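User:
I study polymers; will you set down one protein's sequence and backbone structure tokens?

Assistant:
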Amino acid sequence: MKFKATQPVILASASPRRKELLEGIGIDFSIIPSLKEEPDPSQFQTAMGYVIECAMQKAKDVAKTHPEAVVIGSDTVVVLDGEILRKPQSKQQAQEYLHRLSGQTHDVITAITIVKGNSEQSFHEMTRVTFYDLPEDWIEAYTSTDDPYDKAGAYGIQTMSGLFVRKIDGDYNTVVGLPIASLTQKLLLSGYIALEGSRVHAD
């Protein structure tokens, strides 16, 4: 089963994980990452408000110069006890994050904004993730690789650090960085994509 885009689609993200998930539904799309600097999380009362704003800014930034396209902006945050754990800036910070996540349950929120011309829609998905108690040598070994440093919360569920995860409650792909099932539904309902071979066409 494959889908086709009924008009140009742009993913406003350089994430290889988001690219792979969007490729999975079969549509053609371009990648044009937003260069807009992300806002300061401390300016937001909630992590939810922050991640929604980040996704919206990315989509709108790219849509300004591509009004003909359907632009998809997305952002993902890891939240522990109300605090956003961003991409670690050092090995020490990555280890600190993993020590805090060890044996605990945290939230992963991915927000998406879809912009086409003057039309805009935003939504989000949240998944609860519970870690095993992490041995110290696991944390040391993992943070000695390159893997943690481009990932919110210093781990990626789709990599070796998926071994840290005891259980999840929600959509796995939300944790990866793109809730592709709910995104596909939104794109279908808006007429931006159609099932290949169907008689559905954009107006």
Remarks:
- Strands lie at 3-5, 9-11, 30-31, 70-80, 83-85, 105-116, 119-131, 165-169, 193-195.
- The two ends are 23 Å apart (CA to CA).
- The mean pLDDT is 95.
- The first helix runs from residue 16 to 23.
